[in-house]
Design brief:
The complex is a heterodimer of chains A (about 240) and B (about 220). By secondary structure, chain A is mainly alpha-helical. In chain A, about 55% of the residues lie in helices and about 5% in strands. Chain B has about 220 residues and is mainly alpha-helical. Chain B has helices at about 1-10, 10-40, 50-60, 65-70, 70-90, 90-100, 110-135, 135-140, 145-165, 170-185, 195-210. The chains are: A mainly alpha (about 240), B mainly alpha (about 220). Bound molecules: protoporphyrin IX containing FE and iron/sulfur cluster (2 copies).
């Protein structure tokens, strides 16, 4: 792979915010963050100490982007493959260093260099095109909701599933997996919210609670996906948004 | 010869060392502030001061998780820092030098205390170094410069103790003490030792973030 050095230096400069600079320079490599990480808990290798995740990034800055492809590939493997950005390690770090934020920046570098892992890139493409990362069409979504509502009404005749209703209190969003593969979960959600008697609505266009842009480290796409849901919530004048696992 | 070096080390070099240390740290703080302000431009202010302060206090008291999850390293950290700062500021020999050149002075600690504190700090440094060399995961994380930093911090302590206890050649030890302390001061802004100032910034930034999510100080 050839490296577009211009893009790389621009991205590195872009990501070098106040916190990134501070954290990369004060991390003492003391390893206390390890106690918080589930990767380390299951397999205590040096590579699983949270501070290890930022080594490729430190390397990139130190060499001002003058690196060969292996460094970028290591960065991609480490930052996508050994961290879920859960932030637990931050609570165990004496300095409160945000490893997850640094991993996010490193992923941003990978994205800019065209190194997004293929499965993730596909999901992201889906999310931008269909509004959800599994590529469920609007018709399929509406049909699934209708189907589950009908089943629910057999045991709960008063159950409702309002769609695009203005002025409700809550806007519900779901993990696309629950719509496409586990509609029983949708059934359970609807049952729960109807039983609770809350005033909710769903949106036919913005119902994906995940944000693969954020996960991938692609800030521009993450903002577009977040705006899709946030704008809908504002247009429907709901008071709060409920996100699912 | 040694007197020439000594006179330089306690004279112009001390000035240089303090100037570099203080302006260097000030520069790092100002740079942080400038970048942070630029990134926040146009956004509503959302800094949570109470949470930021609580975050620092939690670490310093120490009530945080690290104290429970890594008790030995936490003890070593405090056993290093408290003596380091107490001896640096309250050793009678240091205060006397300050009084001679600036005419300001404050209470001092008995010299025996200083010796004991210095030995505690050195033991803590020894522990941190050994942990880096022996703990399998930490060894993989450690870089040579991490051990060098521990050595650089140990040198002024060791030579200071030796000078006071009259181990070895007194003028030589004293000269080495002042030289190594000056070098340490000059390196603070350019190494991870800049945490001396940035610890508070980092802890505040993260504490404020945690506050926004109401997840508690930690
Ligand atoms: C007011 C100032 C300071 C604060 C709040 C502070 C805070 C900390 C914290 C939270 C750690 C990490 C945990 C630990 O090992 O305890 C640390 C480590 C350390 N600090 Fe400081 N520090 C300060 C000043 C200094 C100074 C002046 C020096 C030396 C010149 C120093 C040398 C070190 C060393 C050598 C380590 C251990 C690095 C390692 O684990 O290898 N600190 N400090
Ligand atoms: S605990 Fe904090 S300072 Fe220590 S290695 Fe981990 S991130 Fe770095
Ligand atoms: S944010 Fe990453 S490194 Fe930190 S605890 Fe979670 S998975 Fe581990």
């Amino acid at each position: 792979m050839t490296i577009d050095t211009q893009t790389l230096s621009r991205t590195l400069a872009d990501k070098a915010g106040a916190r990134l600079e501070m954290w990369l320079s004060i991390c003492s490599r003391c390893g206390m963050c390890a106690e918080g990480c589930h990767y380390y808990a299951s397999n205590p290798r040096p590579e699983h100490v949270p501070a290890f995740r930022v080594k490729p990034l430190v390397d990139l800055y130190k060499k001002r982007g003058q690196v060969d492809a292996t460094v970028l590939e290591t960065l991609r493997d480490v930052c996508y493959g050994t961290c879920t950005m859960c932030q637990r390690c931050t609570m165990y770090c004496p300095h409160g260093i945000g490893i997850a934020a640094l991993v996010h920046a490193a992923r941003g570098v990978a994205v800019a260099m065209g190194l997004t892992p293929p499965g993730l890139a596909k999901g992201l493409e889906n999310a931008l095109e269909f509004g959800n990362n599994l590529g469920v069409t609007e018709d399929d979504f509406l049909e699934t909701v209708e189907w589950q509502l009908e089943e629910l009404q057999e045991e709960m005749p008063f159950a409702r599933a309002p769609m695009d209703k203005e002025g409700a209190e809550f806007l519900l969003t779901f993990h696309p997996r629950d719509i496409k593969f586990y509609p029983q979960n949708l059934f359970n959600y609807l049952k729960l919210y109807n039983a609770a008697g809350i005033d909710f609505t769903m949106s036919s266009k913005a119902w994906d609670s995940t944000n693969l842009g954020l996960f991938a480290g692609d800030v521009a796409k993450a903002s577009r996906l977040a705006a899709n849901v946030a704008d809908t919530a504002e247009r429907l004048k709901v008071k709060a948004l409920i996100t699912a696992e | 010869m040694i007197h020439v070096v000594y006179n330089f080390a306690v004279g112009p070099m001390v000035w240089l060392a303090f100037t570099i240390c203080i302006t260097g740290l000030a520069y790092r703080l100002i740079r942080y502030r400038r970048k942070a302000v630029a990134a926040k431009k146009g956004l509503p202010g959302d800094f949570r001061t109470t949470w930021a302060v609580r975050s620092m206090l939690y670490y310093l008291l120490p009530l945080n998780r690290t104290a429970k999850s890594s008790p030995w390293s936490t003890v070593a950290g405090f056993a290093l820092h408290i003596p380091l700062l107490v001896v640096a500021f309250f050793l009678s020999a240091h205060v006397i030098m300050l009084e001679q050149s600036w005419g300001v002075a404050w209470p001092t600690i008995p010299d025996v205390w200083a010796d004991v504190l210095t030995i505690i700090a050195l033991a803590a440094l020894g522990f941190l170094a050994l942990k880096r060399l022996l703990h399998p995961a930490l060894r993989g994380l450690t870089e040579p410069k991490d051990l060098l930093v521990l050595l650089l911090v140990a040198l002024p302590l060791l030579t200071g103790l030796a000078a006071h206890r009259q181990w070895g050649d007194y003028p030589l030890m004293l000269t080495l003490h002042v030289l190594s302390a000056n070098i340490l001061l000059m390196l603070i802004p350019f190494t991870k030792l800049s945490h001396m100032a940035l610890f508070f910034v980092s802890r505040a930034a993260t504490g404020s973030d945690f506050g926004k999510r109401q997840v508690g100080a930690w």
